[in-house]
Amino acid sequence: MTTFRHVPAHLFLPSAATLRTSPTPTSARSALLLTSPRLPRHISLKPAAAQLSPASSSSLSLPHAQLRRRFLQLSRRFTVMAASTQVSLQENKTRLKLEQLNLDNSFIRDLPGDSTTDGPPRQVLHACYTKLSPSVLVDNPQLVVWSNSVAELLNLDPKEFERPDFPLIFSGVSILKGSVPYAQCYGGHQFGTWAGQLGDGRAITLGEVLNNQGERWELQLKGAGKTPYSRFADGLAVLRSSIREFLCSEAMDALGIPTTRALCLVTTGKNVTRDMFYDGNPKEEPGAIVCRVAQSFLRFGSYQIHALRGEEDVPIIRTLLDYTIQHHFPHLNSLSSKGEDFSLKPEGLDKPAVDLTSNKYAAWFCEVAERTAVLIAKWQGVGFTHGVMNTDNMSVLGLTIDYGPFGFLDAFDPNYTPNTTDLPGRRYCFANQPDIGMWNLAQLGGTLSTANLINDEEVKYAMAKYGSRFMDEYQSVMTKKLGLAKYNKDLISKLLTNMAIDKVDYTICFRALSKIKTIHDFTDDELLNPLKPVLLDMSKERKKAWVDWSRQYIQEVASSGISDEEKKRSMDSVNPKFVLRNYLCQSAIDAAEQGDFTEVRRLLEVMQKPYDEQEGREKYARLPPAWAYRPGVCMLSCSS
């Protein structure tokens, strides 16, 4: 298997040329940007039209009169265009009440379902879902935090968050109009081993909101009670993990990383028993429910489960994939009619070995592979470690999904894992994430092969596309993080090696690099001054290593002709000042568990603008305090 481990377990990647064999077989959806016409500031349409009276018009020379008529014609045209634009913008700013949301239920309408509704935990055969209602017990649920930007995606009026019954609706006590709740059936490989049926053990989908742009957004309550997929669990969630999921969903979106979103978080008013460290010391914690939002929560495991249950269930894979393409990859239905060439043509062969134009399922698998590659490259860029990259936690839309024991890098350690369950082998550590992405895709490819939807050559092609796309995206990300004109493997490799040796803070270091100026006659101390916040207690040998790298870096930047101001501006736009460190989450959790939600809401505000300076909020960008490394803060279990 191709490996993507970096220096010292993070950078030495195979050459892109060894894997790149054809153009990227993806189609991007076009977007229409509607803007109002703009005139120079000194031109005012209304005063000009008003001041030129018929009398004054007659005194104008012919050219001037023609110019005036032309000007008035343009004025009227601009006025009509502006009015049309305003109407369009108003349409895009539709604000609806909860009862007015356009709720659809395509998943249960188009796919085979469980013949039994509700019921105890059990094996659910020949089905993609089970209909059931939320069953969590609540006592005066309270709204903890909400996302106005997610409400905008749904065309939901933000004033709806102020409704007295809002917490009741989003704790599952009251059901949204038009909702037919269900839990999804899926399986998955957990830590490399097939775990059988998993499914939504505590998540219940309310339905899909269709917004005024034709987008489909699925609403899902996590922690809403037992389902047939709960196994031995209680179907509930605690405030601690729910705060983490809500905040990280919104923080990742602000960072520009594909992710599921979160509309709101409510407490249930009931306690939940959890053994956080699996050490036989359970305790009661406040219960909570988070409303997750995504265009789909389909995972790799949604398809896998039907391939491993015998021949009777295998046809469901095609049915589910047809549904997926119809609603989420519609461009793939018309590949053969567009005349586009999405085929692999090895050197020396006239006939394509892989023709994606004739097989939409192969084209779909390639697109999933590329979306996954882009996602993981972006994770590596910001130092994000998912922690539980099981195949049931991998979105076919290329979204970050299921925020459990995640973590952003503090001191740079390629072997860092935030999951205590992962400690023995560190399968899901930061450096391994690209490899795990490929391994998981291989499992999905095997499922599609079992259903005779793609052949071995098509699987190999998609895997090759994953490799080449990951390297292209990763190299692009790292080049931008250093403000370079082109990728420099040696420079980036040496930087990451230095960071790993000296345990330098990942986020602060990259942000500080933008302050290095391309001045060649700086003394060593002046040269390293921008990095003082992260280069602590260094030996002479280590100081020299950083000085040597910095001078190489200055030379590279200077040769590109990029000014210091331009470099800083571009680097600050891709190197966040603020990331959702685990200790920041814990501070907000500690306060929330005492009934104070102020810090949760403030932390959301900070994380919504990660690339801004945000004067007065420097404490959220500092090095972690000593207590941040205690158990339960820097590392967590899957217990939530």
The proportion of residues forming helix, as a percent range, comes to 25-40%
Number of H/I helices: 21
Beta-strand portion reads 5-15%
Number of strands: 14
Low-confidence stretches: 5-65, 78-91, 345-351
State the end-to-end distance.
34 Å
| Biggest beta sheet summary | 6 strands, antiparallel
Radius of gyration: 27 Å
Strand order across the largest sheet: 1-7-8-10-9-3
Classify the secondary structure makeup into a structural class. alpha+beta
Shape: globular
Task: Kindly report the average pLDDT value.
Answer: 86
InterPro entries: SelO
Family: Belongs to the SELO family.
Cofactor: Mg(2+)
Keywords: ATP-binding, Magnesium, Metal-binding, Nucleotide-binding, Nucleotidyltransferase, Transferase
Report what the structure shows.
- The chain has 640 residues and is of the alpha+beta class.
- Among the domains are: 98-305, no CATH class; 484-559, no CATH class.
- The protein contains 21 helices and 14 strands.
- The strands form five sheets. A six-stranded antiparallel beta sheet has the order 1-7-8-10-9-3. It has a two-stranded antiparallel ribbon with strand order 2-4.
- The longest helix is centred in the first third of the chain and has 31 residues, at 62-92.
- It is globular and about 75 Å long.
- The two termini are 34 Å apart.
- This is Selenoprotein O.
